[in-house]
Amino acid sequence: MANSGKVSGAVVRRLPGYYRYLCDLERDGLVRISSQELGSRMGLTASQIRQDINCFGGFGQQGYGYNVSELRKRIGEILGLDEQYSMVVVGAGNIGQGLAKYSGFRRQGFVVKAMFDRHPEHIGAQADDVAVLPVEELEEYVRENQIAIGVITTPAASAQQICDVLVKGGVRAIWNFASVDLNVPEGIALQNVHLSDTLMVLSYHMRNQRPKD
Questions:
Q1: What is the tens place of the pLDDT at every residue in 67-98?
Q2: Buried b (16+ CB within 10 A) or exposed e, 135-164
Q3: Residues facing residue 117 across a β-bridge
Q4: Which one of 5, 110, 145, 193 is least enclosed by Cβ atoms within 10 Å?
């Protein structure tokens, strides 16, 4: 397998799409697929499919294509989905509770262990079977329970402080939904998710698709 440190960010961002499509194809009972057909389904060229997959080794056979089940498994391994990751969610508002309740994360190996909030009315509540704990206990909980991923859904003003606490507690990655870009030390994976940005992109496309007068 190729060294993932040398793989471009664009390729990495496409990997979850490959995994998702291959899961659907496997559920539909498809045994093999060509790069041409997979590219057609995903809106990519066959050449792009082959180049991306070849970054991690040759998984296909000329004249046969890809074994759907095997390729899905290998991409899952590349993405680290053969492991289980414990998570905490900081911020027990609507977004935080929605993430904690989403059963799809658990099926993919991402398990929310606890939620944290600073508002007394949220402390002690449950999001399904996930308890909401005081934010003052965050660092100790993360350290004692070897939490891998911290999910931040707090207001922007407190997000960096929460991020620093999570890093100090020993998380390896931050998934940030606060409306601010965070700074993390080298070696900590970070994904900033700005929901309003995607709406602005939709707005742009709708504006520019209007018929000309």
A1: 999 999 999 999 999 999 999 999 999 999 99
A2: beebbebbeeeebbbbbbbbeeebbbebbe
A3: 134
A4: 5
Strand partners, 67: 32
Alpha carbon distance 13, 196 (integer Å): 20
Question: In terms of C-beta distances under 8 Å and separation of at least 24 residues, what long-range contacts does 37-44 make, across chains too?
Answer: 37/65, 38/66, 42/17, 42/18, 44/14
Tokens 């496997």 -> residue: 26
Report which of 157, 195, 153 is spatially closest to residue 174, judged by C-alpha positions: 153
CA distances to 71, 98, 125 from 103, in Å: 24, 10, 18
- Name the pTM for this structure: 0.86
Contacts of residue 24, defined as CB under 8 A and 6 or more positions apart, other chains included, come to: none
